[in-house]
């Protein structure tokens, strides 16, 4: 299934990211992923990363047979921040190691 980002809606401190799922020969499906915006602030994540994080969360959720609400949680954002920090550390180490020739 191909996911296409359609935009977002916001009510108070909750943002809903809207997606369309397209698969050959199947009817178009519509999905939303919600997130409490305070989580972006708490984890120092830019709001512009919301659509990408939501798409990854939705794609992951769709791998499971269970259907239900899709929500970016504190744990999802914590996992993202940890993975980003690890990637940054590896890049920094590679730069330091490559400069010692």
Topology (elements, then pairings):
Blueprint: E1 2-11, E2 14-22, E3 29-36, H1 38-42, H2 50-63, E4 70-71, H3 74-98
Parallel strand pairs: 3-4
Antiparallel strand pairs: 1-2, 2-3
Descriptive report:
- The chain is built from three helices and four strands, in the order βββααβα.
- The protein is α+β, with helices and mostly antiparallel strands.
- It has one domain.
- It is globular and about 50 Å long.
Largest sheet: 4 strands, mixed
Q: How much is the average pLDDT?
A: 89
Give me the strand/helix succession.
Answer: EEEHHEH
Assess the beta-strand content as a share of residues.
Answer: 25-35%
Distance between the termini: 47 Å
Number of domains: 1
Shape: globular
Cα radius of gyration in angstroms:
17 Å
Our count of helices gives 3
Helix content: 40-55%
Provide the structure class.
alpha+beta
Order of strands, widest sheet: 1-2-3-4
Low-pLDDT sequence parts? none
Extended strand count? 4
Quickly describe the structure.
It is built from 3 helices and 4 strands; from the N terminus they run βββααβα. The chain is of the alpha+beta class and 101 residues long. The chain starts with a strand and ends with a helix.
